[in-house]
């Protein structure tokens, strides 16, 4: 749910000329028209949803934050399909005029009166940050200062607080998205490390037993590194949880300050503004949960014995096969709501092998360079015939490199799993052992294993597959 863009109020004179007489309004009518039914205070940043009910935007944000989708009106429970609202300018103007009609209803008469001139303090001096009567404003001490009516400057400060609330809310949502990612990593981390150790062990079983010490050292380093990263992930999740509570607390505090009487708001405005800006600093960032990739002696030499020449049929497709969008929706849908609404405009190079494999061992290499989005591996004929090419289909054994925010992530299919290793920047090797049910991907540059799909079940001919994004 997004905040509406900030909108400036009309001029002070226009408000005075166009507004109704709120001083003679019945109190019940006043209460119903200009107060939020959720917080029972004057509307702040009011929005009107599809059913016609109005609420403070902050109240609606908090109410709908963890609600079901689509959300419902808090009053009549009608489903609201719209979540991006515009500020109700007419209602906000009326609330401003209503505040002007009852500006001091919560203050004592002593606080309103100037002790020197015995006049009502109607003005706020922005130099000394204090309340003055008209005669004080004209005195030699204050005549050169800038003075504003209390109700008008209070409204300006409220809008500044609302601006801060927008920033805090955005940071809150950003922090929650990052925390969700860390939680997902924690849930799968130990299983992933166990699987990776099994993949590494399987590779070393294929080479000379003289490499036993290297295998042991490799596995020990993975174990040590994985414990360190898991600890960092847990600390990161705890830090984001604490940051989320601080941001939510500040958001609530800003909301409460918006409801304060004008004089109290002006007294505490600068202090709460500084604290709001401070709590938004030092946002915890997700951990770079990437295991080191050490070379495996003899890996590339052994694979090269099975190297084959791959001839390809290819075509350039523009946005007709939403391969990467499908993958992003499966992996990041909750944290990237814009994925479904922003189909790619990029061009992709798709290619299939002209030959199919039904037995034996086959190895080929693909140059990926600095490309962000690419897919390589093997697939069956039925998948290449599909129009949608969804990534959770059966019969595909692929390695995906997908751009995510300012970085990229590696994933494998069958099943769909993240690979927490370094992204290859040169050649990627692809190996198929049809009889043993193994598909492996290697980083040719440093002779390291990216991942292996162990104990696969091949029931149909497999074709090499390649897809890469074009500039």
From TrEMBL:
Keywords: Coiled coil, Metal-binding, Zinc, Zinc-finger. One of its GO terms (cellular component) is cytoplasm. GO terms for molecular function: ubiquitin protein ligase activity; zinc ion binding. Residues 289-471 form the B30.2/SPRY domain. The keyword Zinc applies. One of its GO terms (biological process) is innate immune response. Residues 212-239 form a coiled coil. Pfam families: SPRY, zf-C3HC4. Residues 36-77 form the RING-type domain. Belongs to the TRIM/RBCC family. This is Uncharacterized protein. It comes from Equus caballus.
């Amino acid at each position: 749910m997004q905040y509406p863009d900030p909108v400036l109020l009309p001029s002070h004179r226009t408000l005075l000329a166009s507004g109704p007489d709120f001083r003679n309004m019945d109190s019940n009518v006043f209460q119903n028209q200009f107060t939020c039914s959720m917080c029972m205070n004057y509307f702040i940043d009011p929005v009107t949803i599809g059913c016609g009910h109005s609420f403070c935007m902050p109240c609606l944000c908090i109410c709908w934050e963890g609600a079901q989708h689509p959300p419902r009106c808090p009053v009549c429970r009608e489903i609201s399909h719209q979540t991006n609202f515009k500020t109700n300018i007419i209602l906000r103007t009326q609330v401003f005029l209503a505040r002007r009609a009852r500006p001091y209803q919560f203050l004592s008469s002593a606080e309103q009166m100037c002790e020197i001139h015995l006049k009502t303090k109607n003005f706020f001096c922005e130099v000394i940050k204090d309340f003055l009567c008209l005669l004080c404003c004209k005195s030699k001490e204050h005549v050169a200062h800038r003075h504003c009516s209390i109700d008008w400057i209070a409204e300006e400060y409220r809008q500044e607080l609302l601006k801060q609330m927008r920033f805090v809310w955005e940071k809150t949502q950003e922090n929650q998205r990052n925390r969700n990612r860390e939680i997902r990593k924690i849930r799968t981390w130990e299983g992933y490390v166990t699987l990776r150790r099994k993949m590494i062990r399987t590779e070393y079983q294929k080479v000379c037993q003289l490499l036993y010490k290297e295998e042991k050292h490799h596995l020990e380093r993975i174990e040590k590194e994985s414990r360190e990263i898991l600890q960092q992930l847990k600390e990161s999740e705890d830090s984001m949880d604490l940051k989320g509570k601080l941001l939510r607390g500040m958001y609530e505090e800003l909301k409460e300050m918006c409801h304060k009487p004008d004089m109290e708001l002006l007294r505490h405005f600068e202090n709460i503004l500084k604290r709001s800006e401070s709590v938004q600093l030092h946002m915890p960032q997700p951990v770079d949960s990437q295991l080191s990739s050490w070379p495996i002696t003899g890996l590339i030499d052994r694979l090269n014995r099975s190297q084959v020449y791959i001839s390809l049929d290819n075509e350039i497709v523009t946005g007709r096969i939403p391969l990467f969008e499908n993958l992003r929706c499966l992996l990041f849908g909750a944290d990237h709501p814009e994925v479904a609404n922003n189909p790619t405009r990029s061009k992709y190079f798709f290619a299939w092998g002209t030959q199919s494999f039904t037995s034996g061992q086959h190895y080929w290499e693909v140059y990926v360079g600095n490309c962000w989005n690419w897919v390589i591996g093997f697939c069956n004929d039925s998948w290449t015939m599909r129009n949608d090419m969804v990534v959770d289909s059966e019969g595909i054994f692929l390695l995906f490199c997908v751009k995510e925010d300012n970085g990229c992530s590696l994933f494998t299919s069958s099943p769909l799993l993240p690979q927490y290793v370094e992204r290859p920047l040169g050649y990627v090797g692809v190996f198929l052992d049809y009889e043993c049910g193994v598909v492996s991907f290697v980083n040719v540059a440093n002779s390291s294993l990216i991942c292996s799909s162990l104990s696969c079940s091949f029931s149909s001919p497999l074709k090499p597959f390649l897809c890469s994004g074009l500039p």
